[in-house]
C-alpha cells in the first residue's frame, strides 16, 4: 500500500513514463517502503525530494550502426540513463539483450541508485545497454558493435562522470572491446572509466566473482540470524551466467549443494551437485547452452526444456538470471516445498506477488538491491585500485567484499528493526539507501 502523500508522486511517474512497466514496478516497491520514513521524518517529503529521486538526471538514447560479417548494415539502439550523481559518478552496468528498452534501463538505473548508496561507497547510480543480441554473433561482429556503441557513449563517460561495467550479455570480452575503443578515441589510458576490466589491463581481482560471492555472503549472514548456514543445504540457482556461476562456486565452498541451474532454454537438475568445472567450460569457454551440460554430464542429470526451475524441491533459492523470473505461483511452490531463504542475485527477479508470498511465509527474503550489491562494491574497489595505481591480492579483495556485504546486511537489518519490521530486508534496504541519497541531495540544494 502507498502512503497517501506518495500516491501523487507515483501517479506522476506513471504519467511521465508511459509503458515502462518495470520502471513503475521498481519505483512502486521503493515508495511502498518510504511511507514509514515520511511518517517518522516528514521533512523527507519536502522540496520535491522524492519526486527528484524518481526522475533521472539525464537519459541518452543513440543509434548504433554496425556491419555484420556478411556485409549487412545493422542498426541497434543504445541507452545510458544517468540517474543520480549525488554520491559520486554514475555507476552501473551495460546490458546487451534484445529485450532492452528505455524502461528496462530506467528500472535498473533506479535500483542502482539505492544499491550503490547501501554500499557506503562514493558512487552514484546509472545503467545502460542496447537491444543488441550477442547470441550467435562472431567475435568480429561483437567487436564492431562494441566499438560503434562506445563511439557514441564515450562522450558521456569519464572516471569522474560516469563509469559503466558489465551486466547481462556484457562480460570481459565486450568490456575489452569497449575499453579499447575508448582508449583510442580519448588518447588516454583512463582505467577508471570502466570496471570489470581484465587483470592485465587494470581490472580487480574478485570482480568476476563479486556479485555471486557477495549474494552468498549476504544470505549466509541472514541465515546465521536464524542459527542456520549453507552446510548440507540443497540450493536452486537460476541462470548460468556470471552471477549464477560464482553463486554456485561460493555455495559449494560453504558446503551447500546446488542441484539445479538454467538458461533461457530450460533448466538442468543434477542431484549430485552441479559440476562447476563442466558448467564453466560449457558456458564461459564454449558459450554453449544449458542442455549441453546434461549431455556432457550423462546419467543422473536431467534437462527440462522450458519449465520452471522453481518446481524442484530445495532449501534455498537464489534467482540469478533476470527480472520477474520468479512469480507468485513459483513462490508458493517454493514455500510449499519448504524453502527457508531466497536471495536475489539478479535485479528484481521476484515479482511483487512473489515477494509478498515470501514475506507472509516468514522466510528470509534478501532483495537484489542489497544482496547483489557486491558486484558494484567491488567495481568501486577496482576504481580505488585504479586511482592509486595499486593491485590487491585475491584474499585482501575478497575480505573487503565480505566485510562490505556484512555491513550492508547489518545496516538493512538495523533499519528494518528501527522502522518496526524486524527481518524485513526489503524495507531495510529501501529506507537505508534512500536516507543516504536524500540527505546528500538535501545538503546540495535543489539540483
Ligand atoms: P549473464 O549474461 O552473464 O547471464 C545471464 C543469465 O540469465 C544467462 O544464463 C541467461 O540465459 C539468463 N537470462 C537472461 N535473460 C533471460 C531471460 N529473459 N529469460 C531467462 N533467462 C535469462 O548476466 P549476469 O549473470 O551478469 O546477470 C544476471 C543478473 O544479475 C541480471 O539481473 C543482472 O542485472 C544482475 N546483476 C549482475 C551483476 C554483475 O556484476 N554481472 C551485478 C548485479 C546484478 P541465456 O544465456 O539463455 O540468455
Helix content: 40-55%
Whole-angstrom Rg: 21 Å
Percent strand: 15-25%
The DSSP helix count reads 16
Which structural class is indicated by helix and strand composition? alpha/beta
Major sheet details: 7 strands, mixed
Termini, distance in Å?
Answer: 29 Å
Morphology = globular
Description:
The protein has 3 domains: 7-53, Glutamate Dehydrogenase, chain A, domain 3 (Glutamate Dehydrogenase, Chain A, domain 3); 58-188, Leucine Dehydrogenase, chain A, domain 1 (Rossmann fold, 3-Layer(aba) Sandwich); 210-371, Rossmann fold. 47% of the residues lie in helices and 15% in strands. A 7-stranded mixed beta sheet has the order 9-8-7-6-10-11-12, with helices on both faces. Strands 1-2-4-3-5 form a 5-stranded mixed beta sheet. It has 16 helices and 12 strands. The protein binds NADPH dihydro-nicotinamide-adenine-dinucleotide phosphate (NDP). NADPH dihydro-nicotinamide-adenine-dinucleotide phosphate binds next to helix 8.
Amino acid at each position: 500500500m502507498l502512503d497517501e502523500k506518495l500516491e501523487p508522486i507515483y501517479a506522476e511517474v506513471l504519467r511521465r513514463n508511459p509503458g515502462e512497466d518495470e520502471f513503475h514496478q521498481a519505483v512502486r516497491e521503493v515508495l511502498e517502503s518510504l511511507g514509514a520514513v515520511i511518517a517518522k521524518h516528514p521533512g523527507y517529503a519536502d522540496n520535491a525530494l522524492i519526486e527528484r529521486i524518481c526522475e533521472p538526471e539525464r537519459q541518452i538514447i543513440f543509434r548504433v550502426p554496425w556491419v555484420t560479417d556478411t556485409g549487412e548494415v545493422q542498426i541497434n539502439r543504445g541507452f545510458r540513463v544517468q540517474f543520480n550523481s549525488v554520491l559520486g559518478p554514475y555507476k552501473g552496468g551495460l546490458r546487451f539483450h534484445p529485450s532492452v528498452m528505455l524502461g528496462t534501463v530506467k528500472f535498473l538505473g533506479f535500483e542502482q541508485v539505492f544499491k550503490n548508496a547501501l554500499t557506503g561507497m562514493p558512487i552514484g547510480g546509472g545503467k545502460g545497454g542496447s537491444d543488441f543480441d550477442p547470441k550467435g554473433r562472431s567475435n568480429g561482429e561483437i567487436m564492431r558493435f562494441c566499438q560503434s556503441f562506445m563511439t557514441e557513449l564515450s562522450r558521456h563517460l569519464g572516471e569522474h562522470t560516469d563509469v559503466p561495467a558489465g551486466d547481462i550479455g556484457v562480460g570481459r570480452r565486450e568490456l575489452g572491446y569497449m575499453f579499447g575503443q575508448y582508449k583510442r578515441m580519448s588518447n588516454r589510458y583512463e582505467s577508471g572509466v570502466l570496471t570489470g576490466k581484465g587483470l592485465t589491463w587494470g581490472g580487480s581481482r574478485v570482480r568476476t566473482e563479486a556479485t555471486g560471492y557477495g549474494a552468498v555472503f549476504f544470505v549466509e549472514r541472514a541465515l546465521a540470524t536464524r542459527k542456520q548456514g549453507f552446510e548440507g543445504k540443497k540450493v536452486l540457482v537460476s541462470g548460468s551466467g556470471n552471477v549464477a556461476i560464482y553463486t554456485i562456486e561460493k555455495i559449494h565452498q560453504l558446503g551447500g549443494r546446488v542441484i539445479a541451474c538454467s538458461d533461457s532454454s530450460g533448466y538442468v537438475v543434477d542431484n549430485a551437485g552441479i559440476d562447476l568445472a563442466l558448467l564453466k567450460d560449457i558456458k564461459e569457454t564454449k558459450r554453449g547452452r544449458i542442455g549441453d551440460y546434461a549431455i556432457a554430464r550423462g546419467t543422473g542429470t536431467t534437462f527440462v526444456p522450458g519449465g520452471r526451475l522453481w518446481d524442484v524441491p530445495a532449501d534455498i533459492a537464489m534467482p540469478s538470471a533476470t527480472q520477474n523470473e520468479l512469480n507468485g505461483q513459483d513462490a508458493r511452490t517454493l514455500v510449499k516445498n519448504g524453502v527457508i531463504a531466497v536471495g536475489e542475485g539478479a535485479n528484481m527477479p521476484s515479482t511483487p506477488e512473489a515477494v509478498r508470498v515470501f514475506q507472509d511465509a516468514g522466510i528470509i527474503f534478501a532483495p537484489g538491491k542489497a544482496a547483489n550489491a557486491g558486484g558494484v562494491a567491488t567495481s568501486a574497489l577496482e576504481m580505488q585500485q585504479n586511482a592509486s595505481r595499486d593491485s590487491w591480492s585475491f584474499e585482501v579483495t575478497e575480505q573487503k567484499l565480505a566485510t562490505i556485504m556484512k555491513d550492508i546486511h547489518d545496516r538493512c537489518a538495523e533499519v528494518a528493526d528501527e522502522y518496526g519490521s524486524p527481518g524485513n530486508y526489503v524495507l531495510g534496504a529501501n529506507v537505508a539507501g534512500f536516507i543516504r541519497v536524500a540527505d546528500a541531495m538535501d545538503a546540495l540544494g535543489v539540483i
